[in-house]
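Section: protein folds

Sequence with per-residue tokens
===
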Amino acid sequence: MSVPGSDPVLAGLVAVEALIRAGDLARAGAALETIRDSAPNDVRASLVEATLARAANESQREIAALRRACALTPRWVVPHLELGKALARADALEEAVAAVDKAVELAPNDLGVLEAAVAVANQAGSNASAERHLRAALALQPGNPLITRALAVCLFGSARYADAEHLYRELLAGGVQDPVDLASLGECLTQLDRREEAIACLERALELQPGDAAIRFNLALARGETPDTQPNEMTQALFDGYSGRFDKHLVGALKYRVPKRVAEIVRARYPDLRIDVLDLGCGTGLTGVYLGGVKGRLTGVDLSAGMVERARRHGIYTDLVHGDLREELRRSSAGSYDCVIANDVFVYVGDIAEIVADCFRVLRRGGLLIFSCETADDDERGFVLRPSKRYAHSYAYVERLCRAAGFADVSVEHIELRADGAVLLPGFIAVAQRD
């Protein structure tokens, strides 16, 4: 193997890497250019260029350098794996999965490569790819509890609850009662409609981890009860893992139309957009994108740090808050907004009475509260919790709450919210006006 003293290209690249670590990117770039001029087909120079590009936050340049490295050494696993990671960071998720799949093809027995491939597949939401790599890893290390648990999570995500149940029972067969495995087994059994077994598992999990709000929520679900809200921890975990593919999946695959329609409603009411807007559960900022240039404040709030980071990239929001929308409403001064928006937010909250009242308080006279709901038939409570763990609300319940909070006018527009499998999910957009 060459050492820097006997390989002038390697010696130069080692010096470039030292400059990158020191943060001297300009000198590193100049030195690297000299090396590339003398050795244009040296794959190591392409890999160091990718390192430099990443340090400079130039994702497309990083990807181009790694593609060049793959072309120069098509049978070397490293550039393919690094290309997959870079594509995943750039949210080019389908290409990322293809790149790491190629890396696994080149090094099928390398656990490190398989682990990286699973991480990219999970980010892309590709359960089939993740399952394939996890099974390959499990074949290399049979009985490994970390791999077994990851495969069980993957199978649950693919709605293969019986297969996931088998793996969770395998994990628990050793005699160690892990509360996470017990709770996950309970969720599988709930989905399989074996409620008594599910309750027993979840009750034991709650005994071992009494402060866990998610276990308490899933236990209530197994018992057929309807909790008032989904725990923040569950919502946050869901969207932190979903943020990278959220826009493409929701708008493309699921045909999510609400942010665009809500933006149209706001623009019709305030054509000059000289307003202050509070976007509750702003996600990646789709509503802000559709609204465009709000002339006043546009404040977004979301539980998910990943979502807030992606909303920030649009450069549209004047303020972005990573936190609970209830706390942000309580912090906000009375009469501080012209419009409050909550798109696809109340599907994670059953009892919305307090939130609606707080929205009324922060609105100015004539202000609008606009929010979407999945449609439920009217009953005594006014909301139901579906097996999807999403809440649906009746229009009659929503109207009662809005009028009780003080809103003078409440209207509703029925809309197909998004695709749910092969079916379009019915819902509505409610518009409540103050005074």
The beta strands are 277-280, 298-302, 319-322, 337-342, 363-375, 383-385, 391-393, 407-420, 423-434. Residues 239 and 304 are 6 Å apart (CA to CA). The first strand starts at residue 277 and ends at 280. The chain has a mean pLDDT of 91.
